[in-house]
Amino acid sequence: MSTFLENQNWRYATKKYDSSKKISVEDLDFLKEAVRLSASSYGLQLYKVIVVESDEMKAQLIKAAFGQTQITDASHIFVFAAQTNVGAIEVDAYIKNISETRGIPTEALNGFSELMNGAIKGMSDEAQTVWTAKQTYLALGNLLNAAAELNIDATPMEGFNAVKFNEILGLDKLNLNATVIAPVGYRHTEDDTQHYVKVRKSHEDLFITI
Question: Where are the transmembrane segments (predicted)?
């Protein structure tokens, strides 16, 4: 029987990590692959994921995360950064990838290419920024679920200065904008919140069946 729901009950937004425990290379590769396989609009994956393991870099980032110790104590930090100024170049690269992966002539994908280009061109700059940012949250969800499968702790965080993160990681020079981050590692025995009973809405309050 699937342990998915059991693992979802086990996980929580970890407040204090054990800095002495590190994620193995094998488990880190599993998490990365889960993120890579995430759903995204059209399949475009208009974002990059920066995985921070350097203690020196963490020490810089904590200043831009309001001193939250998850940044320095967690094993790794996943930084999800949405692409900015998206257009035909990204669509063409995706079409090429589809063609090579599935053995389909690019000409056969012209309709799909035109659909995506038309949708993107029809967006305002603000709408495009919101759209690409939303895609990073889909990838974040996969990371959280995959981490729970391995009993690895994770903390989704919006409490950070994106401008400073962009500067420190050089994201602004790559046309990227940090949207959400997730420290991952192992909970500290002193983190009392791990013992709290999970609080969620009831089925009656959450679902509407029509």
Answer: none
